[in-house]
Design a protein that fits this description.
alpha+beta, Alpha-Beta Plaits, 4 helices
């Protein structure tokens, strides 16, 4: 038993020591920024085309937002917090702005165009939350 524990520990040490530091994005989230979170809840019969979302939809949205948009991030749901339970969200998109008015100005003239693109990648009605970054 002791030998097995030592071998397991050695395996983890060797595995993690070979990992290289990955370059990180230089974008810095700052206190007071506006974060628009777009959540795509999972559920029976829900579909989501991540390839289309990352390569077509989010670039389309970014083109409408102009210089007011500071950063985009996308999460792909891969697991839930509890074993053997479905992922709660298939995807989550984030848009970062310095001011709420930058988001509103970019969205207002294009909201119908953005909504018309939804069926090309999902059958989910997204839940949107706008937050102020505190930390």
């Amino acid at each position: 038993m002791k030998t097995r524990s030592i071998l397991t520990l050695l395996f983890f040490v060797l595995s993690f020591s070979s990992l290289k530091a990955q370059p990180t994005d230089t974008f810095k989230v700052k206190k007071g920024m506006i974060k628009v979170t777009i959540l795509y809840p999972n559920g029976e019969g829900k579909t989501f085309d991540m390839d289309y979302y990352t390569k077509k939809h989010m670039p389309l949205v970014a083109s409408f937002m102009g210089d007011g948009l500071k950063h985009i991030a996308i999460d792909k749901g891969i697991a839930s917090g509890m074993p053997d339970t479905p992922v709660p969200f298939l995807a989550i998109g984030y848009l970062y702005f310095d001011k709420l008015s930058d988001y509103e100005k970019g969205l207002a003239p294009h909201v119908e165009e953005i909504r018309a693109d939804f069926p090309k990648y999902t059958n989910i009605r997204p839940v949107i939350q706008i937050s102020e970054v505190l930390q």
